[in-house]
Every structure is written in C-alpha cells, then in structure tokens.
UniProtKB/TrEMBL annotation, chain A:
Residue intervals passing through the bilayer: 6-30, 37-57, 63-86, 98-120, 140-164, 185-212, 218-239, 246-265, 271-291
Superkingdom of this protein's organism: Bacteria
A GO MF label: transmembrane transporter activity
Taxonomic source organism: Alsobacter metallidurans
Protein's UniProt name: Branched-chain amino acid ABC transporter permease
TrEMBL record, chain B:
Keyword ATP-binding: yes
Gene3D superfamilies recorded: P-loop containing nucleotide triphosphate hydrolases (3.40.50.300)
One GO BP annotation of this record: L-valine import across plasma membrane
GO cellular component: plasma membrane
An MF annotation (GO) of this entry: ATP hydrolysis activity
Protein name listed in UniProt: ABC transporter ATP-binding protein
Assigned keywords, A-Z: ATP-binding, Nucleotide-binding, Transport
The organism of origin for this protein: Alsobacter metallidurans
UniProtKB/TrEMBL annotation, chain C:
Coiled-coil regions listed: none
Compartment annotation: Cell membrane
InterPro entries in UniProt: ABC_transp_permease, LivM-like
Source species: Alsobacter metallidurans
Keywords, ordered alphabetically: Cell membrane, Membrane, Transmembrane, Transmembrane helix
Cellular component GO terms held in the UniProt record: plasma membrane
Membrane topology: Multi-pass membrane protein
Pfam families: BPD_transp_2 (PF02653)
Protein name from the UniProt record: Branched-chain amino acid ABC transporter permease
Taxon lineage: Bacteria, Pseudomonadati, Pseudomonadota, Alphaproteobacteria, Hyphomicrobiales
TM annotation in the entry: 20-53, 94-113, 120-139, 169-186, 219-240, 260-282, 294-315
One example GO MF annotation: branched-chain amino acid transmembrane transporter activity
Signal peptide (UniProt feature, chain positions): none
Gene expressing this chain: livM
Length: 297, 257, 331
C-alpha cells in the first residue's frame, strides 16, 4: 500500500511541475504564433524569474511579494532586449530559421554565463508563499505552494485570454498568428508584435520560475530542462492553444513523476527527452499543420 | 504507341471534384498540351501524373508500367522528369552546376568512387561537365554558365530549368505552365526550345495557360474545364471546337496563336 | 581581350591555388606550432580536433542544408568509447578509435533514420535532444563513464606499442587527421554524391524530381558527420588524456557552430579555418577571463546577423579586387 501512496504523492507533485511546464509551453506558443520563430532560450526566462526574485529578496531585502512582482517586468524587459538585439536584426535580414534558432541558443548560454558571474553558480531557493503546510489528506501531503501554482496558473491563462480577446494589441497579435501578410496589409505593425510577444513570453516564463522555485531550487542551468519540457508540453498540446499546452504540461509532469517512482530519479531527464523524441517521431510534422505551412521568404 | 496514358483519373478534395474521370494518351515523340482556364484542374492533374498527389481513383501508366502514387524520385528514375511552375533552381550554385546535378539519374557513383576517383569516374565527370555546357548552349545560356543561377533573369531561369531536366535524359518531359511570367520574346524563345527538345526525340507534355504558346508548339491538345475533359484534338480542331469556344473563351473570338 | 583559352587557364590556375593555398597555410601553421612553446601546441591541437568535428558537421549543415544541434552526442560516443576501451580495457588506441567510430556510425544510422524525417524546428529540437540525452547518460551511467568525475588516464594515441608521447608528435598526427578530413570533404563535394547533397540544400522538391533519393542522401550526410564527430571525440580523449561530460556539452555545439559560421558554412575549407581562428581567440580574449564564453556567444550572434556567410562571404569581393587589378594591368 505504501507504494500506491508514494505514487499518488508523486503524481500530485507532477501536476504542480506539469503546470509550470505548461506555462513555459504557452510562452513558446506566444512567440511562435506571432512570428513562426521557436525561441530556444525560452527556459532561460524560468531561470531568470527565480534567480532575480531570489536576488531581490536577499540582496535588497525586499518582501517576497514585492520581489516576485518586480522580477516579472524585469525578465520581460530582458525578453524585449533579446528580441531587439538578436532576433529582430536577423529577422529583418531574412536569416534562415536554423540561424535564428542557433542565435537564441547562443543567447541562452550567454545569459547563463552572465548569471553565474553576477548571481553566482550555487542553487538557490526561497520559502513557500504561504508558510505552514503541508495539507494532509490521509497519508498524502499536499504543499501549499501547489495551490499557488494552480491559482496563478489559472490566473495567467485567464489574463492571457482577456488580453487576446479584449485588447487591441492582443487581437492584433492573434491576427498575426492567423496570417501575417494579411495582418500587415491591415496596418498591424507586425514587427512590433514580435516585441510584444517576447515580453509576454518572458513574463510567463518568469512567473513559472518564481512559482516553482520554493518547491525545488533554481540555478543558472535549469533553463534547458525547463525549456525542453515546456517545448514537449507545447507539442503535446498542439503548439498553438494555451489550454492545450497546459494540459500537455500536466500530462508530461505526471508521466515524469511516475517515471521517477518507477525507475529512480537519475534518468528523469533522459525519460523526458525520450518522450520528446517519441512524440516527435510519432507525429512527424503532421499534427500541427502550422509548422508545415510556415515558410520564410 | 502511347508513352504516357492517363486512365480515368479522378481527384476529389473533400466535396470538391478537381479532376473528374480524365483520360488521354500521349503518343511517344509528340508534343501534347493540356489547357484550360484557371481552376480547371490542370495543376491537380499535373501533380497526379508527376507523383506529388495520389489520385482518388484511376491510373497513370508510363511506358506500360503503372506509376500511380509512386514517390517523385521513383517516377523520375523511370525517365519522366518534371519542371516547376515557380522555378525551383539551386539558387546558390552556378548555372553549369545546376545542369550537372541534372545528370544524377543517368550517372553512377557514390562515396567510394568520389574518394578513389577511378578512371571511369574521372571520365564521367569530364563528360558531365562537357555535356552540361552543350545543353546550356542548346537552350541559349552558353554565355552564362558560370553565373550564380539566382542572378539570371526570370525567363532564363525557366530555360535553365529545361536544360537541367534535359540533363536527366528524360523520355518524357513534363512542363508546368512554362510560359507563366514570361514576356512575348521569352515565350517565343521557349517555344523554339520546346520544338528542338522534341526533335531530340523527347516526348513533351505541357500543361499551360498561354494559348499562343500551345497553339504554336502542340501537336495534340486536351482541354479541361471544371475538372472535366471537354475536348481533345489537333490545334485546328480545338480552335473550332464549339464547346471550347464557349467554355474556355466565354464566347469571345479566339485570337490566332 | 578575354579569349576562351585565357579564361580557362586562369580558372584552372585559380582552382589549383584555391586548393593548395590552404594546405600550405595549414602546414605553415604546423611549422609554427612545432617551433613554439607548449601552450601554442595545445591550442593548435584543439584547433585540428575541432577542425575535424566542424568539417564533418559541414557535410550535414553546409552541403546538405540541414540542421543538427546534437552532433556533440557522437563526439561523446567517440571520446568515451576510446577512453573506456583503452584506459579501461587496455586496447590499442587505433583499434579503439575504429571500433568507437563504427559504433557511432551504426547508432547514427539507427537514430538518423527516424529523426531525419522531421523538418524545421522539430528537426532542430529532436537533434538537440539527442545531444542532451547523451550528456545525461554520460553523467548518470557512472559505472561506465565515472559520471561527473570524468575519465582519466587515457593513453596517447599510438600504434603497435609505439606511443606518441610528446605533444608535438601528437600535433603532427592531429593536423594530418584534419587535412585528411578536409581532403575527403573536398573530394566528396566535387562528385555526383556532393552534387546530390547540394541539390537537397537548394530545393528538395527539385532534387526529388531529378531522381535524387532525398531521405537516403540526408541520412548518409548525417552519418558522415557523425563519423567525423566520433573521430574528433576519440582524438580529444587521447590528446588531453582526460574527458568529462562537460567536454561534450551544449557549449561544444555553440563553439563548433561559431567555427562553422565564421569560416563559411558550406565551403570546403571554411570549417577548418574557422576552427583555427576560434581556437586562437582565447589568446586575444585573454583579458576578458570569465567573460570568454560570453564573448564567443556575442561573436557568434554578430556573425549570424552581419555576415551569415562568414569569412567565405568576403571571397568574391577579394577575387573581384584581384581581377580588377589584373584587368588594369592588361590595359
């Protein structure tokens, strides 16, 4: 019976981590929909969210809430910086898609190194948002932070929905994802939409990073695993829909948690990456027509 | 005897009937044209023949063998070579290199021979280089052999695509709207090249919108309208065919090609 | 004034200069290496090893126009294969290198066959995942790889008991490997095989329409790149005598891409030229210390933005300059 408890316990943890993957996955989709670019540096926003929040907390002694609220716009600003300095110049010169992917990958490494130099290479963490807990349900413990993740995840999806349906910018962004040429003809500044999408996507990543840090740790090198898992979540969810990415993330998180119980923690990343390959190979270019139809002039 | 035989080809996309039971035979050594107004199903038919689409029903027979639904490379390897409506050149390579690649089907050799360069390999390379220049001269691009293909004017890119297709020594060359985007002068040069290609013994099937070109070069014409074949015959027969006049020209008097 | 005969002799002279000048330059560099101190020898050794790696990558990314962000996986296979077989089992280094390369080639076939059906971002992410999986395995399978600690005590390369003990002896072998790698690359490019790869890079539909088996050629290019990567990994293990997972990590991907793009992707000599320049960069960037990795990334991004064809992009301008000079002289 202990094994069942253990499994249930890890599944609950999996849901929390999975929601985080889902938020990262939505970040991928936001940029991809606006531009057709897949930003390989997506995971770096998760890392920066946690690290910057931690730095504001410990170095400036800010209260947790303030640190968290401040960290998000800072990371969004970094996202806009990446767009302005790296992605847009290449985009304007008609660089190949592989070159842009490579540039975002290089950007990720650059940011990781700068993080080591400024914030250190040690793993960091900060306390859960609500002290106390965990909540006991029989033998199963549910940390309070999970509710924060659930709540903030729902809040983010709600805000995104409002943004995309109720604001001019959001609607323009959606128009771009439907048909960029037509959007440009309608007078939508397609170039600026790329900037908006990077800011939005970085903010999503930062929220994810801040939410997840109390449940584990953050360090300069957590970007790649979160980026890859977020990408898998986005793929499972259909690379386009926010709800799909969130559901994909939860599925992936639960699978991973189960894999850890069954095979041990050591090969957790190998399991996740193999899932990626299997998903990719079972649905080669087929399930999301957007990829196939997308062509750079 | 028919080199290519299209037999009852039907292509359905959901509710849309793009090709409805189309049949015709392309005799060996002829210049055959398929014409029709925009949306008549020409491109769909072309793709069914060339292998990028598998028809819903019906057969395409090349040289006595069914080729329906075979992959593009397999169809090419039998000697049926196509060109593209929007030219698909190897843009970063020179004009001569583009044609040299065309010889892929009719030459041999892989990694091993490329490393060891035995005598037959060197002779083959020399012959490829020489024949490529000959083909370029043949289509009138002899002077531009060392240019980067992308830098050629559009009309000449078309001719280069024809030269590259000829390098593959096709038995049948399938031209997809070769006159699209060409001016009168370029179209005339193209017509001349098509004639001379045919004189080399290559069967030509062209799918074309431009009446002038078709009337000038084709020996036999099939007319499509709304996915159906409405007429087939010599240019003179087509010119005076009442259905063609109403359907294709909307009653307007036909200009002499 | 240019009769066809003159043009053709000049073209052939230029062709020969084009293929011999880099060889002479490489040998000159080898001479410099042999007559200088240990540090330069080490740097040039790395340059030659990375030259082999990047030249291989160029088959897949340059000639064929595909993308692999996970070629470091095969360097890790080669490196760990050689380390385990020689240091762990006392095997002859050359034999170990051959076995490791064979294994890499077999794995590249098996992995490449399904993976290369993917396109675009999916191909990029899937190959990236291959590299990451290999990295994780080298860390986690400690009984085989000794994990984070790395594998030490790898003997220098040698044959029949005769070992190349000094770094300078080893440098000669490494440079020979690099030149052999470029020679093979050059021969393969100028052949029916190389033209088929170029056709795929130019337009896959057009290549298929001319009878090129697109999937098959892509796979062969991928496997060749894997073989080069594996050999480079083996050479690294023997040259340094120690390997760890970090050696074949993601930064290897970025480093090799920097070399490839700096020298000129798709050119025969570009990858090796890029490898030499990038390997010498730490000398120039010495003042930056910890910022070195950042500097690499900045350089790579700058090349990608401003000169996507690398140094090779300047070749036509230089050629034009010389031609103009020749024309002026003729008049």
């Amino acid at each position: 019976m202990a094994d069942i408890t253990q499994l249930l316990q890890s599944l609950i943890t999996g849901v929390g981590v999975g929601l985080i993957y889902g938020l990262v996955g939505i970040g991928f989709c936001v940029i991809y929909n606006a531009s057709g670019i897949v930003n390989f540096a997506q995971g770096v926003f998760v890392m920066l969210g946690g690290m910057i929040c931690h730095a504001l907390l410990t170095r400036l002694g800010l209260p947790l809430v303030l640190a968290a609220v401040l960290a998000v716009p800072i990371v969004a600003g970094i996202g806009m910086l990446i767009e302005t300095l790296v992605v847009r110049p290449m985009w304007n010169r008609g660089a190949t898609m592989f070159a842009i992917i490579l540039a975002t990958l290089a950007t990720q490494i650059m940011i990781e190194r700068i993080t080591i130099l400024t914030l250190g290479d040690q793993p960091r963490s900060f306390p859960e948002f609500t002290p106390g807990g965990p909540l006991k349900l029989g033998d199963i413990a549910v940390g309070y932070q999970l509710f924060w993740i659930l709540g903030c995840g729902a809040l983010m999806v709600g805000l995104l929905w409002l943004f995309f349906t109720r604001t001019r910018t959001g609607r323009a962004l959606r128009a771009c994802s439907q048909n960029r040429e037509a959007a440009a003809l309608l007078g939508i500044p397609v170039g600026r939409m790329l900037l908006v999408s990077f800011a939005l996507s970085a903010a999503l990543g930062a929220v994810a990073g801040i939410l997840v840090t109390p449940t584990q740790v953050t360090a300069f090198n957590i970007g790649t695993p979160f980026g890859v898992n977020g990408f898998i979540a986005a793929i499972i969810g259909g690379f386009g829909s926010a709800a799909g990415a969130l559901a994909g993330g939860v599925l992936l998180g639960v699978l991973q948690a189960a894999a850890i119980v069954l095979f041990g923690a050591g090969f957790k990343n190998v399991a996740a990456l193999s899932t990626l390959l299997v998903v990719l190979l079972l649905f080669p270019s087929g399930i999301f027509a957007g990829f196939k139809g997308f062509k750079r002039a | 005897m028919a080199l290519l035989s299209v037999q009852n080809v039907t292509m359905r996309f959901g509710g849309l009937l793009a090709n409805d039971n189309i049949s015709f035979d392309v005799p060996e050594g002829s210049i055959f044209a398929v014409i029709g107004p925009n949306g008549a199903g020409k491109t769909t038919l072309f793709n069914s023949i060339a292998g990028s689409l598998k028809p819903t029903s019906g057969k395409v027979v090349f040289d006595g063998q069914p080729i329906t639904g075979l992959p593009q490379a397999a169809i090419a390897s039998r000697g049926l070579i196509r060109t593209y409506q929007l030219v698909q050149l190897f843009k970063d390579l020179t004009v001569a290199e583009n044609v040299e690649i065309g010889f892929h089907r009719v030459t041999r050799g892989g990694v091993g021979s490329a490393l060891l360069r035995p005598r037959w390999f060197r002779e083959q390379e020399e012959s490829i280089a020489r024949k490529a220049r000959e083909l370029l001269a043949f289509v009138g691009l002899g002077d531009q052999a060392d240019m980067i293909a992308d830098k050629l004017p559009y009309g000449r890119q078309r001719l280069l695509e024809v030269a590259r297709a000829l390098a593959a020594e096709p038995r049948l060359i399938l031209l997809d709207e070769p006159a699209a985007g060409l001016n009168t002068q370029e179209t005339a040069a193209l017509a001349d090249v098509i004639h001379r290609v045919n004189e080399r013994g290559v069967t030509v099937l062209l799918i074309e919108h431009d009446m002038g070109l078709v009337m000038k070069v084709a020996q036999r014409i099939a007319v499509l309208d709304f996915g159906k074949k409405i007429a087939e015959g010599t240019p003179d027969e087509i010119r005076s065919h009442p259905d063609v006049l109403t359907a294709y020209l909307g009653g307007v008097e036909m200009a002499d090609g | 004034m240019t009769s066809p005969a003159i043009t053709s002799t000049r073209a052939s002279w230029r062709d020969h200069a084009g293929s011999w000048l880099p060889v002479l330059a490489t040998l000159a560099l080898l001479g410099v290496g042999l007559s200088s101190s240990g540090y330069i020898v080490t740097v040039l050794g790395f340059a030659a090893i990375y030259g082999v790696f990047s030249t291989g990558l160029n088959f897949f990314m340059g000639y064929t126009g595909q993308a692999s962000f996970g070629q470091n996986a095969f360097a890790a296979l080669g490196g760990y294969g050689s380390a385990i077989l020689t240091a762990g089992h006392g095997m002859e280094p050359v034999l170990a290198l051959l076995i490791a390369t064979t294994v890499s080639v077999a794995i590249a076939f098996a992995v490449g066959y399904p993976t290369l059906r993917l396109r675009g971002h999916y191909l990029a992410m899937a190959t990236f995942a291959l590299g990451l999986i290999t990295y994780e395995i080298t860390i986690e399978w400690t009984s085989l790889t000794q994990g984070y600690m790395g594998y030490s005590g790898i003997p220098p390369i040698g044959l029949f008991g005769y070992e190349l003990v000094t770094e300078k002896q080893m440098l000669v072998v490494l440079v020979a490997f690099a030149l052999l790698g470029v020679w093979i690359s050059n021969r393969l490019r100028r052949s029916r095989f190389g033209r088929a790869l170029a056709a795929i890079a130019g337009s896959e539909p057009a290549a298929a329409a001319l009878g090129v088996n697109v999937a098959g050629y892509k796979l062969v290019a991928f496997v060749i790149a894997a073989a080069y990567g594996s050999v480079a990994g083996s050479l690294f293990a023997h040259f340094v005598g120690f390997i760890s997972p970090e050696v074949f990590g993601t930064s290897m991907v970025v480093l090799s891409f920097t070399m490839l793009y700096l020298g000129g992707i798709g050119t025969t000599w570009g990858p090796l030229v890029g490898a030499v320049i990038v390997s010498l960069l730490p000398e120039a960037l010495r003042g930056l210390k910890e910022l070195q990795d950042v500097a690499y990334c900045v350089i790579l991004v700058a090349i990608l933005i401003f000169a996507p064809r690398g140094l090779a992009g300047f070749a036509p301008a230089i050629k034009q300059f010389f031609n103009r000079g020749a024309a002026a002289k003729a008049e």
